[in-house]
Amino acid sequence: MESFKASFAIEVEKMYRKKKAVIILIMSILIIIFVQLITTIIRSNLGIIGTTASGFPITVLAVFSKTILPLFTALVVIDTFTGEFANNTMKIAITKPVSRLKIYTSKLAATGFFILANLIVVMVLSIIVGAVFNIETFTLVGTLQAMAAYLFTFVPIMVIAVVIAFLANVFKSSVTVFFMSIIVFGISQVFGVILTSYSNIFITTSLDWYKLWIASSLPFGEIIRQILYMTAYVLIFFTAGFYKFDKRDL
Question: Which residue of 80, 119, 130, 149 sits 20 to 30 Å from the alpha carbon of 60, by its own alpha carbon?
Fold first, then answer.
């Protein structure tokens, strides 16, 4: 366990040194500003109320979870695996007295830490902005629902990270992995809309998982179904990804 903790700390430090946190913070602020501007325009020009204090963070999440967050998650995973192999820095980690399984899981755990930190930052900023511009509709219950939505979004994004980690250990080029990730993400989005009867089998459908948890009545059947699909994705792609990682030459 100590070796895993040390490997995890090293991975987090690598991400911090590459200033990814600063970039994601800037992009997150831009997303929040964009949503607030659109809301203001709708209010002033169309005479529509717009959104509520709790609805604003949810609107931001709907945009953030399907654009910026998957993009930066892909970049982090690619840099963590393919990038280190390309720069020959992976050799340093693998030659240490730590099993490849612990190295692989620590890299995914560090990615999960990155995802969770991004969600928390956007959540806090969007709740503050939503409360400031919509103070008359602010409620504690609505705020707690918004917080739950952000935290539950962590799960499907992490599943996507596991899938991308598999691609990063199949292809040697970072550019190839990035474009393959975009293609897989795009195909999943399109077929998830077209094949509505089978939409649950496409991983991007689970990006709306948070909506199930903040619904007026919990659809337990649908929640369990999506949990099973996401678990299957993790088991398959984690196993396949680690297999490729373990057999990969330095």
Answer: 80
Q: How many CB atoms lie within 10 A of CB 155?
A: 16
What is the C-alpha separation between 161 and 110, in angstroms, rounded? Answer: 11
What pLDDT digit, counting tens, does each position of 127-146 carry? 888 888 777 777 888 888 88
Position 91 scores a pLDDT of 56
Q: What is the mean pLDDT of the chain?
A: 81
Query: 195 — alpha (psi -120 to 50), left (phi > 0) or beta?
Result: beta
Taking only Cα atoms into account, the Rg of the chain, rounded to an integer number of angstroms, comes to 19
- Band (pLDDT 50/70/90 cuts) for residue 86 is low
The pTM assigned to this predicted structure is 0.85
**13, 18, 48, 72, 101 from 23: Cα distances, Å:** 16, 10, 34, 9, 30
**DSSP alpha helix (H) spans, 134-219:** 140-170, 174-194, 209-213
Query: Roughly what angle, to the nearest 10 degrees, separates helices 100-133 and 55-64?
Result: 140
